[in-house]
Amino acid sequence: INSEQLPTGLPDDIFDSLPESVRYYIRFLEASIQRLEKQVQEQARIIQEQAVKIQGQAEKLHELEARLSKNSSNSSKPPGSDGLKKDLKPLAKEVNPVKSQVVKRVE
What we know:
Elements: H1 12-17, H2 20-68, E1 93-96, E2 101-104
Antiparallel strand pairs: 1-2
């Protein structure tokens, strides 16, 4: 680690008076801090890009949900645009408890 590349925040005379191992460790920590600061900046940039993308997707989702909820009864769409809907009433077999026989329900 090159000491001239990293400011220690200490006056040169104090820094130079420290044992070599301490100076090395200070330079190592400062290099680590610089690396982590760059990483945080990159992550902040990515988060900002993702926030913009999420906002756009949320707006699109809202628009699509609004379009899906429209039909001829709650908008100016013609009835033919509603599409074919299945009858939601199931044809089920019911047990008649009085006669103990299966009765087919017709609707």
